[in-house]
């Protein structure tokens, strides 16, 4: 079990270097990642996905962080430079950007998660951590990494894998672990067709969160071994974990709510449906992810904006939002918004109606528009009378992206509009 002494955890986190893998496109998000990586995608009204692992690090006492970037990273880099430059180098604190730099050979882009870390071993050595915490940059959750690192040290592990309990049907999307009664990993299979259930819990599996704690020297040794292995895909899940579980001590740390002991909130918003659903979850009376938690704040960069404004209160021309979240800079003028999440600087004009939708920043919704079950990408300018989300086939004919469940994505390119913006 994690150690109860906060000084113990604090000392461990101070000697930990966190690496956030933020180089992936996230192709299942379709056109939302045409101009930037998945970790840069907006989430929750004012945040970016990358803000969640970064905030977890800061709140856990980890203040030495490297962010590894690759795919169309400009907007992600700008966001981190603007919003995450408050750490003090004089105190050994930093958030560093580590782009793919062809550090090994002239053609060596990051070939996989393990290769991304391997190509930066010289930088890691310079920082001289005792432990290296490796994180995915594209998941939504709040987690105290200090407790996981303490568990890693107390259990005498060479490597510890963060895991969730998931239903067997969902487990096919993850790396699935076989874990014994002592929390030691005895088997691992990436995205298995027939996931092995937890003993005594049929229908449930242990799934990897893509979060790893390594002893520094063990990490160096295994990455060099993997780099020398012909045919390796250079991936932690596919290659590193299966190669070490028999010979070394690999432990599983189950991610649970520290108060209730139940499965904690964690979302992979990797599809349009999941992205839409996770955003709209936030507007509930008691949402599963509490963004109002002062004890575990989510930090970000946001432009200084005026408060949201609702214009007119006549019976037939009332600006209103019900059961919704509306961010700064928004103006709802003689329009109605229901059960929706509006990001910053959204304008909803006269007699428009928006329902069950996620509207990203800097969107202008014209007069008499009707928008339902939609994701509206940043910078869209919807012309007067535009109808989206009422007829999936009509949306497809219009060139919009429609999911099997009927969620419609609209981007400026689909509207024939200028998309020369950093998104």
From TrEMBL:
It catalyses: alpha-D-glucose 1-phosphate + ATP + H(+) = ADP-alpha-D-glucose + diphosphate. This is Glucose-1-phosphate adenylyltransferase. Its EC number is 2.7.7.27. Involved in the biosynthesis of ADP-glucose, a building block required for the elongation reactions to produce glycogen. Catalyzes the reaction between ATP and alpha-D-glucose 1-phosphate (G1P) to produce pyrophosphate and ADP-Glc. It comes from Marichromatium purpuratum 984. Homotetramer. One of its GO terms (biological process) is glycogen biosynthetic process. Alpha-D-glucose 1-phosphate binds at residues 110, 175, 190-191, 208. Keywords: ATP-binding, Carbohydrate metabolism, Glycogen biosynthesis, Glycogen metabolism, Nucleotide-binding, Nucleotidyltransferase, Transferase. The keyword tRNA processing does not apply. GO terms for molecular function: ATP binding; glucose-1-phosphate adenylyltransferase activity. It is an enzyme of class 2 (transferase). Residues 306-410 form the Glucose-1-phosphate adenylyltransferase/Bifunctional protein GlmU-like C-terminal hexapeptide domain.
